[in-house]
């Protein structure tokens, strides 16, 4: 019974049965006992290190921390952008979109993945068998598209000196487009899916399985989809983002402006550095998982005895990206840091605040002067 490894978007442990549902034994068979205490190891079975108590405690702790940090951090980011008027900028709207995608991952990926890893059986029924892989792939696509949109918007404004920013209406249309496009790309994982029960007569066991079932009864289409998503979801977006931020950094580094605008340029540099670091963290966290998944699609690692453990560890590393962003915002941007502190201290929360490091292009002093002189409203970077 071959592992089902048809998609790089798949966030759950590899299925132990092939996606054709024919029940034929393959050359790369790797059965895993649901419980080592059964004491039976027929030909084709091997012990599973993820069944050891110490490993299970470690996995539960790791996933629980990621869920807790990711849910609380991203929820706090969204709350701040909604709560404070001066945080409602185009860049921050896209950051909120990214946080929403991470929240989706925390709620519809990690809990199911952890339980599936520990139990080796799909306990959640037919509907969730189709919906969970779709939601997981959807969140990854929205995340990378949001990072790409943020980079291109800043590239448009900074490199080409476009003073006019996107309107709220335009930004929400773009966010709706990212979710629609992501849903289209993730749809095959909901369509080509099968929930069934498998019988294991040798140990009198019947388990529920949620696996991919591609057309023509083979995994070829799944491998094509997996490789396509690797290109569309990782390689091309990161190439576009890298080009945009390199151009932005060169522009800001060589920018010569009057002293009255130096604060604005410095804030743009800080914000650009923060957003670029968010992309770097995303790329680093997901690189091992993508490489390992690609090797799996090419049948290069299926024979590893501890394949399941490696898969789970790389998946945990990838999921660290879901809580890393709020930490970076709090570390590198005073607006977010001050807002986080006010929430944690339960202090009175004004409608807006203007500390140094705001996404606004002017300082408190500039705000006061412009107010006296009837200046124009602040422009978001």
UniProtKB/TrEMBL annotation:
It comes from the Eukaryota. InterPro entries: GPCR_Rhodpsn, GPCR_Rhodpsn_7TM, NPY2_rcpt, NPY_rcpt. Pfam families: 7tm_1. PROSITE patterns: G_PROTEIN_RECEP_F1_1, G_PROTEIN_RECEP_F1_2. Residues 73-329 form the G-protein coupled receptors family 1 profile domain. It is a multi-pass membrane protein. It comes from Mastacembelus armatus (zig-zag eel). GO terms for cellular component: membrane. This is Neuropeptide Y receptor type 2. GO terms for molecular function: neuropeptide binding; neuropeptide Y receptor activity. PANTHER family: NEUROPEPTIDE Y RECEPTOR (PTHR24235), NEUROPEPTIDE Y RECEPTOR TYPE 2 (PTHR24235:SF22). The keyword Transmembrane helix applies. The keyword Iron does not apply. Keywords: G-protein coupled receptor, Membrane, Receptor, Transducer, Transmembrane, Transmembrane helix.
